[in-house]
Amino acid sequence: MAPSSPRNLNWLSSSEDQITPWVDLPPELVSLIANSLGLIDLLSLRGVCKDWRLAPSTATAEIESEPSTKPWFILYGETENCTLYDPNDKKSYSINFPELKDATCLASHQGWLLLLREGTIFFFCPFSRARIDLPLVPHQEISNHIAAFSCPPTSSECIVSIINRCDENTMEIYVLKKGDTTWAKHSFERNKWNFGTIIGGIFDDKKETFYYLDNSSKTLTFSLKETKERNCIIYRIVHDAPDPKTNCLPFYYQQSYFMDSGLQGWIELKDDVSISTCGATTPGHKYNILISNECIESSKGTANCQMKGIWIQPRFFQIPTTHSWLI
């Protein structure tokens, strides 16, 4: 390596007679380095110069997907100013995400957010600013909406599901597969659904089934397998099953994750601030983990400020400018 003199720090030397600028490293080597970096280091590498920004086009900060890595948290309000919290290194960052202004996050999975804003619905990767717009959802009222998607929207296998509880007797599920131009609507009528407030959704690819959880230890399943009649089935979740033949959930789930994480004390929310959080699907050692949504009321009982939060895997995805949901 070159001497430690400050004027030589940007140069790489293989011999005394040959010195090469760091920026002239072969793109293959830059990509190899980029593929081994976490998110912050990857963003720093991309900021060195134009060539380094273009070279690591396949780097996604995959190292952040280790089961031992905690998801990050985005805190935002009514503006584009956000605070990003990394609970692994206990660091926070101020950053602007204009896409989050006036937006509601319906789902978070593998570094992608599914956002609903002013009647439009789109996928958004905050750290690369990649955006993929989806066809309009027929039902625009966002109350009681929860969503889940099978895999990153860049995949041809991506499937999105949005569940909406219209009233105590009617449940609607909208499904959109990659390349579709319209949502498939499935309505289910039942005399008083015995199902509480929906707090999260997840997809199991082996069973080709979406699972939606409520706040009273129940799960509602919706299978994508072709049958004569699609149906929603509600199961009660028990932690100590008396019957060994009892079906097991194909995922883990965590409620009160925000409260249990200690993040509330780190953020130092004021007494008159309430916060609603969007959970996320994160990798586990055996099964994926569903972090459920939460609503934390202000300690005063009445909130003068309503904040929003999103749990997210810190991943980076670049997409071609020509990429769309239809491709």
TrEMBL record:
It comes from the Eukaryota. Residues 84-251 form the KIB1-4 beta-propeller domain. Gene3D superfamilies: 1.20.1280.50. Pfam families: Beta-prop_KIB1-4, F-box. Residues 22-53 form the F-box domain. PANTHER family: F-BOX DOMAIN-CONTAINING PROTEIN (PTHR33127:SF20), TRANSMEMBRANE PROTEIN (PTHR33127). This is F-box protein-like. It comes from Forsythia ovata.
